[in-house]
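Hey, quick one: can you model this chain's 3D structure?
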Amino acid sequence: MSDIAVRVEGLGKKYLIGKQRHATIGERFRSIWAKSDHVDESEFWALKDVSFEIKKGEAVGIIGKNGAGKSTLLKVLSKITHPTTGRFEMEGRVSSLLEVGTGFHPELTGRENIFLNGTILGMSRSEIKSKFDEIVAFSGVEKFIDTPVKHYSSGMYVRLAFSVAAHLEPEILIIDEVLAVGDAEFQKKCLGKMDEVAKQGRTVIFVSHNIGAVRNLCSEGLLIEEGELSLKANVDNIISKYQNNFKIDRNQRVDFSSRIGKGDIRVNQIEIFDKKNKLTGKVYVGSDLEIKLGISIEEKVTYKSRVIVGIYDHIGVSCARFDSDVSGDSIDIVRDCSLKCQTQPIYLSPGNYSINIALYGNGVMQDYISNVVSLEVKNDDFFETGKFFEDNMTRIWLRNQWSIEDEVQG
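Sure thing. Here's the predicted structure for all 410 residues.
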């Protein structure tokens, strides 16, 4: 008897990106019957020649940048979409949670959807009933179990959907980043449940940008890059390669391309200084920062404003945050101006970071820019002990002093 739970061979998924050209309604109807419809389209391969095997009882984490093809791979394995090339085999019942709403009928109640999902998995009504109370208790939606799920919030939806997926005893459990919708306490419960499932000898496939969760839950990993399987190995090796792929922009270009917001007031310039000179994307451990933002205004009215600057590490984990509202600073913007934020020394571990900026005016998000500028924290003998901070040990270091208070009496 084979010990392979999932076998994937030469898997590829192609999408056609284009637009059909129909000048008139008549042409549109004629095109339905014609073989030679005019289409201007290009090919996009979300997955390219992916092959791997997963053994029964393994917990496998799949990581990669946004758009790498991770979610497409899970949709193929969950039979939500068909592969363009290649084949795959799954041994046993498969339960998956990929998107809010996947597998639930909006007009049915939570109770009815539990029985529907169990039936789809091939379980008998008595088997589902034996798990019913446990599913509802875990999800925490007891009060709404007889309410149509179309009235659920996204958080409630995910809580029940995960509970159903994890408790109906699938041989293979597939979970995507959708767990991020839930609150921190429920995410912790979910990770604990997935760990329990894995220890019961069932197979778990987990996609997440939470590298700590992947490391704690999974023993093996897959690294997906631009639709291709870059590496299948021990999860620590996978994470190490993934982290090493991040490169800082040493030219320190300011990137305003990925912004959202109403736009009545906007950030148009960013300058970062340390206590010695203007930064060019580098700062030493323990430096304090001075962040200057150039602000442009469309209409000369008073905007009671809030500014948030976030520093994120190379895998998107928030490491520091400066918030004018929390610090109690009043900012009234009435004209084009420059805003200055002065920080105390920051003890970020040596490494590469990016900066996000959010600007609110009169309670409305006016400008949000992600990865607007990069920052490299350099190592330094900050404590003047001849010893340096150890890379990758932690993200935050704190000043500390050790002493002996009392001698131990023998």
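One thing worth noting: The first strand starts at residue 4 and ends at 20.
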